[in-house]
Design brief:
- With 292 residues, this protein is mainly beta.
- The protein is globular and about 55 Å long.
- Strand 25 and strand 26 form a beta hairpin.
- The protein has two helices and 26 strands.
- A seven-stranded antiparallel sheet has the order 1-22-19-24-17-14-13, with no helix packed on it.
- 6% of the residues lie in helices and 50% in strands.
């Protein structure tokens, strides 16, 4: 197997609020030319780098809004988020947990800081991914997966040097609990200083990583600091990461969905006509009802 090299390291510029509860860097799409197709099936990545929110009696967040044609995956590193959607999904995701919502044919949902956490305030750190759906599944029934950290597959690295948490897909013989529509891997590498881990994904899978804490060296030569995103070339399969200090790294790798992408706001479909239909269905109330 040949080594997979880093194509580019991105230090995301600028932050903006989504609602009043999520202060994010938008990395996919847009950062240094990254398109939805280039990192498919991962078509959006918002990263709320560590940010302190003061106590608030009224939870901050994002009010009711629609989605169609893809999945939202929210990974909580610090803080707690409460979610509700019009298909009946909902609950609280705490630190280390994941919320995997399949919007598919259409849902309304809202996301807020969890009420009790909001009253106390604290450091908040989250990742939200949008995972595309193939055309045959875009109009399937919505569903919701609440995945706790205890459910993740865990692979312990030698000499207690760290652990690989498997949310979706697999790492070596360990598998994750998330069900997916296309082949993909979503992993957290929690590494102690000096720990080294090797990864291998098919060369055609779009593969990237985000350093949430610490800093790492990839393949012994490419430094990726905290809050930076590294995109790999689609050549070779294996690569290594070494933690230069205690580090947390999110790794994503997936088989690209080689279909046309049409998107506007909260809808991601295959054609412009399907986007117009999504707006029409939303305006007609076909996404259900959810109280704001």
């Amino acid at each position: 197997m040949t080594t997979r090299q880093v194509e580019q390291v991105i230090n995301p510029a600028g932050k903006h609020f989504v609602g009043d509860g999520f202060l994010v860097h938008n990395i996919i799409p847009g950062s240094q030319g990254l398109s939805m197709q280039r990192v498919s099936p991962f078509i959006m990545l918002d990263y709320n780098a560590p940010h302190y929110f003061p106590p608030s009696a009224t939870p901050r967040g994002v009010g009711v809004h629609p989605h169609r044609g893809f999945e939202t995956v929210t990974i909580a590193y610090k803080g707690k988020v409460e979610h509700h959607d019009s298909s009946g999904g909902g609950g609280v995701i705490g630190e280390g947990d994941v919320q995997w919502m399949t919007a598919a044919s259409g849902v309304l949902h809202k996301e807020f800081h969890e009420k009790e956490w909001s009253k106390k305030g604290g450091d908040f750190q989250m990742v939200q991914l949008w995972v595309n759906l193939p055309a045959k599944d875009k109009m399937s029934k919505p569903k919701y997966q609440a995945l706790t950290n205890a459910q993740f597959g865990k692979y312990s690295l030698p000499n207690d040097s760290g652990v690989i948490e498997v949310i979706a897909g697999s790492y070596k013989e360990v598998t994750g609990p998330a069900s997916t529509f296309t082949p993909l891997h979503l992993l957290n590498a929690r590494l102690n200083r000096g720990a080294k881990a090797e990864f291998s994904f098919p060369a055609n899978y779009n593969t990237a990583l985000l350093v949430l804490e610490g800093n790492i060296t990839v393949n012994g030569k490419t430094l990726v600091p905290a809050n930076n995103f590294a995109l790999f070339k689609n050549e070779g399969e294996t690569f290594s990461i070494e933690a230069n200090e205690n580090s947390i790294v999110l790794l994503l790798s997936g088989e690209p969905i080689n279909e046309p992408i049409a998107h506007h706001g909260p809808f991601v479909m295959n054609t412009k006509q399907e986007i117009l239909e999504a707006f029409d269905d939303f305006n007609k109330g076909k996404f259900g009802y959810l109280e704001d």
